[in-house]
Amino acid sequence: MPNQLNGVDIVSSLPSKLPRAILFDLDDTIIEFHALAAPAWDAAISGIKDELQGFSPIQVRDAIDRVSVTWWADPERHRLGRLDLARTRRQNVSTALRELGLIDDDLVDRIVKDFEQRRFAGLRLFPGALKTLEYFHEAGVRLGLVTNGDGAGQRAKIERFDLARFFDCIVIEGEFGVGKPDERVFKYALSQLGVDTGDAWMVGDNPSWEITPAQRIGLQGIWVDVHGTGLSAHDGHHPDRIIRQISELLDTLPPKSQVGST
Ligand SMILES: [Mg+2]
User: Fold this and answer.
1) How far is the CA of 25 from the centre of ligand 1 (A)?
2) Is the pLDDT at 39 greater than 80, yes or no?
3) Cβ distance 252 to 132 under 8 Å?
4) Range of the domain at 231
5) What is the percentage of the chain residues whose pLDDT exceeds 70?
6) pLDDT digits 0-9 by tens, 142-167
7) Stretch 111-122: mean pLDDT, rounded?
8) How many Å lie between the centroid of ligand 1 and the Cα of residue 212?
9) Residue 159: exposed, middle, or buried by beta-carbon count in 10 A (0-12, 13-18, 19+)?
10) Are residues 28 and 158 in the same domain?
11) Could you tell me the distance, in angstroms and rounded to a whole number, from the CA of residue 204 to the centre of ligand 1?
12) How far is the CA of 28 from the centre of ligand 1 (A)?
């Protein structure tokens, strides 16, 4: 567990008491999300491999990856695209197939639908995620869920894993109108919880969206290094703590029975 940052013991620098509030990101913080995309695309394309007019599934997958990477690299396109993921995916798959000379809207629809079904079916909670949320919830820490993306898609994930019971506030980009890294998201969530920024943690896997902007307004930023890349891949970000999964938050906390007894 990378508990050191630039030679400083991060764990020992943590506040000794629980914060009054914690804001959690959803995708790749509580739920495993991005890692599921590759196998879902492969399976969806393999399912129609006899209709690819001589192209191999790998060629089609490469074309979709190329178009998708270019699309999502632009921050404004990313913002608009994630608010209607189904439309964005259809558009990118259509562009990719057209680049190969495959013009077949029905094929596009079937690939995207199969991908989405497989990806949603494959979603899973990270080990210990429920136990972690339960600990803080029962300890009386006010919890907020702050997640980017469209309302229906994010609500479906929340419902599937029955997560709403842990949270006193849920802020979804598609419902709220703006998303992370806009600091209004963090401020609004904390105002709903009735907690000052200096009494709160933000826990998430995206340093640009969740750590640095939250720290800027006074929260402690706890980075979930879900891919194990370390900070070298994220210049300019200085999380207060680095963990690989949220269950590690429990490692330095008192047993639930002792919370509030001091
Ligand atoms: Mg995330």
Assistant:
1) 6
2) yes
3) no
4) 4-33+125-258
5) 90
6) 999 999 999 999 999 999 999 999 99
7) 95
8) 14
9) exposed
10) yes
11) 6
12) 5
Tell me, in angstroms, the distance from the centre of ligand 1 to residue 153's CA. 14
Whether residues 151 and 201 fall in one domain = yes
Quick one: pLDDT at residue 259? Answer: 60
Q: Please identify, among 99, 122, 145, the residue that sits at the C-terminal boundary of a domain.
A: 122
User: How remote is the CA of residue 172 from the centroid of ligand 1, in Å?
Assistant: 12
Q: How far is the CA of 217 from the centre of ligand 1 (A)?
A: 20
pLDDT digits (tens, 9 = 90+) for 18-37: 999 999 999 999 999 988 89
Mean pLDDT over all residues of the chain? 91
User: Locate tokens 């995206």: which residue?
Assistant: 206
Count: domains in the chain: 2
**Residues 236, 171: one domain?**
yes
The answer to whether 19 and 199 are in contact (CB under 8 A) is: yes
Look-up of token digits 């998201």: 185
Looking at the structure, do residues 250 and 133 belong to the same domain, yes or no? yes
Residue 18 alpha carbon to ligand 1 centre in Å: 23
pLDDT tens for 55-85 read: 999 999 999 999 999 999 999 999 999 999 8
Name the residues around ion ligand 1, CB cutoff 5 A: 25, 27-28, 205
**Which letter does DSSP use for residue 19 in this model?**
-
| C-alpha 144 – ligand 1 centre gap (Å) | 14
In this structure, the answer to whether residues 110 and 43 fall within a common structural domain is yes
Distance CA 117, CA 109 (A): 12
Same-domain check for residues 160 and 185:
yes
- Between the CA of 65 and the centroid of ligand 1 the distance, in Å, is 20
82 & 103 share domain: yes
Total residue length of the chain: 262
Instruction: Please give the distance, rounded to the nearest whole angstrom, from the Cα atom of residue 168 to the centre of ligand 1.
Output: 19
| One domain, residues 97 and 11 | no
Amino acid type, 209:
W
Q: Is the pTM of this model over 0.85?
A: yes
